[in-house]
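Annex B. Sample input.
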Amino acid sequence: MSNQLIGTAIQATKDSSDGLENSESIVLSESIWRCAQNAKQVKQLKKTAMDLPQLCQWLEGDELQQVFPIKEAVSESKTTADPSTESTPLLGALRMSHGCRVIHVPSYLQGLWL
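Annex B, continued. Sample output.
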């Protein structure tokens, strides 16, 4: 699942960075997403959202599906060893905002040397 989300994010980054050379902003996104990969991470990320509600929020899998409408991922074992393995559900994700930003690193580094 995370690979599909990463692919979606990469495409969004490509779309938003087209013509970046002519843009004043190097900020590609005003938030950072951390997807849970297992039950332990779900617990940790939910706790983070509860402890820091001013900085982040937890989205359950169904809420995440509304933000990023993609099909559920096929687990690696289904594509390799065990064809009977079912798809991996979206577990949820932590959205960090209010100061968290994704930047275009080459432009940022170039700006440091100007």
